[in-house]
């Protein structure tokens, strides 16, 4: 499992363990004279940094108490250098009764080991977080996974309400399907569960500021900060909104909707909102706003001692840049 998105990596690990457990149970059920304990799966999790030759040999060898074993090794990038040859050798001829799951959190560290494992034909699952504009699609997939249905607008509303954290979104999807009574998950249902959170999300601040509405944007900002919204989420939402707007404004005219959505990097339903927002912006105003966001982002990450002031200054600069020639 490679990639920085821990939720997707953890889900892939659970799926692998579940598959081995199911196979082990089927094998035991089909065996003549199976004894108690046969078919069980022994799961061991450890940090790669703690691995040595003796432990590795023990964990990848036959078990006295289980038909199959799963070894989950996290933090592969921290594997001791002396262990790399042993792991790569094992990958070339693994035990049939042991599934070894290696979790690498992304980045360049440990890349040499990863490349050698790939050459050994190890199966790789990449845990890459979906892009912001793909989150409604992620929500729709989660809703389907739990047996429910949802349309694009409601999926987008849930993202706006809950935010970009995949664990939070997955949990919200599970809860909504469970409580929907078999009906489609609607914007109204999302509002009942998450309406209070939706009103203080970073996206509400960004939408108000990009629309040039100074007082509502400042009110939303203060409310969001009072409710614990991290300042970096506000600058991230603002940057994403302005970046999409800049791409939309500079896109060639006359493009088909599907082509335009790909050019801008947003789902098709988002184009209508961008069209409305673009009416109050000029290239010079957008440039000023984007610079203000970059400065605020640096400020809230340590360049300034007062994140609230930095964000208020950003909002004022953006709303004043709206409509500027």
Question: What are the SSEs and their pairings?
Answer:
Layout: H1 6-29, E1 41-47, H2 53-59, E2 68-74, H3 84-92, E3 98-103, H4 111-119, H5 135-145, H6 152-162, H7 166-179, H8 187-198, H9 202-210, H10 214-226, H11 231-250, H12 257-264, H13 270-278, H14 283-303, H15 307-321
Parallel strand pairs: 1-2, 2-3
Helix pairs in contact: 5-6, 6-8, 9-10, 9-11, 9-15, 10-15, 11-13, 11-14, 14-15
Task: Summarize this structure briefly.
By secondary structure, this protein is mainly alpha-helical.
Keywords:
325 residues; three-stranded parallel sheet; single chain; mainly alpha; elongated; 15 helices
Could you give a short account of the major beta sheet?
3 strands, parallel
Overall geometry: elongated
The chain-level structural class is: mainly alpha
Strand content: 5-15%
In helices, the fraction of residues equals 55-70%
Which regions are unreliable across 5 or more consecutive residues at pLDDT < 50? Answer: 32-38
Mean pLDDT: 85
Number of strands: 3
Distance between the termini: 50 Å
What are the secondary-structure elements, in order, as H or E? HEHEHEHHHHHHHHHHHH
Radius of gyration: 25 Å
Number of helices: 15
Strand order of the largest sheet: 1-2-3
Structure, described:
With 325 residues, the protein is mainly α. 59% of the residues lie in helices and 6% in strands. The protein is built from 15 helices and 3 strands. The protein has helices at 6-29, 53-59, 84-92, 111-119, 135-145, 152-162, 166-179, 187-198, 202-210, 214-226, 231-250, 257-264, 270-278, 283-303, 307-321, and strands at 41-47, 68-74, 98-103. A 3-stranded parallel beta sheet has the order 1-2-3, with helices on one face. The protein is elongated, with a radius of gyration of 25 Å. Mean pLDDT is 85; it is low at 32-38.
